[in-house]
Amino acid sequence: MIESPQFPPLFSGEAVTRHTDPFDKAVSRAIAGVDSGTIFYSESSDTLRAALVLAPETPLEEAIQAVYVAQIGLAESLGALAPPEVPVYFQWPDRIKVNGAVCGGVRFATDVSDPQAHPNWLVIGIEVPFLPSGDEPGENPNQTCLYFEGCGEITPMALLESWSKHTLLWLTYYMDSGFQRVHDEWRPRCDTLGKMIEQPRPGVFVGLDEKGRMLLREGVMTETVSLIEFAERA
C-alpha cells in the first residue's frame, strides 16, 4: 500500500484516480476555484506526476517565473534524495536532465496569455520517470529514468514530498527577494547556457533577462523568448 505523502504548511494534496492526469485535474479544479497550494498527484509507482495550483497576485510576465521555482525545487529534491554523484540540470524551457539525459520535466498552464494581464490561476506540473518505459539502457541515450541512474531506492511519493517542501521554500525566497535570487540559483544548473541551440529557435542561449525571458543571440541580433509562449491553454 502506498503511503500518502505529507505536505508542508500552505500546501495540501489530493490523489487522482488511476487513469486521470493530475495536470488536467489541476487545471479543471483551478478553473472551478480550488484553493491555491493544492497539489494533485498520481500514486503510480513508475512515474511521478503531480501538479500544483497557484493563485498569482502579479501580472503573468512575473507570475510565470514560478516555473523556475518549481524547477529548482525538483532539482534540489533530486539532489537531496539521489546519490551525491548524480548531477541534475535544466534544459530551457521545461526539461530536467539527470546525468546528461532528459529525465522528465515541467509543464504549465494559465488562463491568460497577455504578459500584463493578471492570471486567476497558474498550474505547474512535474513528471519524472522512475522506471523504463520499455527501452533497454542505451537504446535512447538522450532519455533516461531514475532507475537507470542509480536512484532505485527513491520512491515517487518521497520525491513528491521533497519537491513540495523545496518548492514552497523557494516560493518564499521568490516572494521575499524577487527573481534575482531564483535566477542566481537556476543559472548554474542550465547546461545549455552559452551554447548554440536549435530549440525553440536557432541561436546562442546567452542567458535570462530580469523578467526570466530567454536571451537568444543570432549574429548581431539578440531577441527575447518568454516562457509564456510555452504555456498550455485551458
TrEMBL record:
Transmembrane segments: none
Recorded superkingdom: Bacteria
Residue span, BPL/LPL catalytic domain: 7-187
Keyword Lyase carried by entry: no
Any GO molecular function: ligase activity
Record's keyword terms, sorted: Ligase
Record Gene3D superfamilies: Bira Bifunctional Protein, Domain 2
Pfam families hit by this protein: BPL_LplA_LipB_2
Name the record gives this protein: Biotin/lipoate--protein ligase family protein
Lineage start: Bacteria, Pseudomonadati, Pseudomonadota, Gammaproteobacteria, Pseudomonadales
